[in-house]
Amino acid sequence: MLKSMAGRTVIVTGGSKGIGRGLAVRFGAAGLNVLVVSRHLAEAEAVARSIGDHASAFAADVVDQASCDAMAAEALNRYGSIDVLCANAGIFPAAKLGEMTAADFDHVIGTNLKGTFLSVSACLPTMKRQNKGRIVLTSSITGPITGYPGWSHYGASKAGQLGFMRTAAIELAPWNITVNAVMPGNIFTEGLDGLGDDYLATMAASIPMKRLGGVDDIANAALFFASEEAAYITGQTLVIDGGQVLPESLGAIEAMG
Q: Looking at domain 9-254, which of 3.40.50.720, 3.50.50.60, 3.30.470.30, 3.40.309.10 is its CATH number?
């Protein structure tokens, strides 16, 4: 049982759908004030309404420094503190090498990696004044551990987040600010709804646990990193993938019986 975090404040970027929505809802259920951040205000407002009176929405684009600064200022204005940042906003358009343009690459790196840096930087003044904070990055197994055709830019951004995390964890430790990352495998979100049952079954077949993860699986791990119980954990990653990265070949899956 985690100690209560009721009354603390979390910012969740990319909080209007998918894993971000799961993070916002889970932190809200734990009693935290939640600022749901998205480029699309109406979508963020819908998530905030589903959480309750201790949640609200804000429109921001993590690629823009002024937008991130405004996000942090508004969280402080509304709730009086910034205790947790879930730097979750990310994009994953597919483009193979030879077809990928410099603009495609910059767009993904700018959102996923630079956006992490800008979100963290915006929250640091408040966290340092408080002499305490929790930063949880949403990375991925893709890039740091695995690869997938069409996602070289995405993989680079997710691996880059972990390099950023390790040095940030050292620099921010004197202020009792921890920086950790969750690394999802194949997680079922609304973005997979249109892929069909056969495709989803193929995805699940490559996972030893024979199922896709849920957004709660990621949110529960993030909540732990944000807790008092995780106060001595920083610069670390947690892979949440049902064992997806473990088999050395398809033969290993088949040998499970």
A: 3.40.50.720
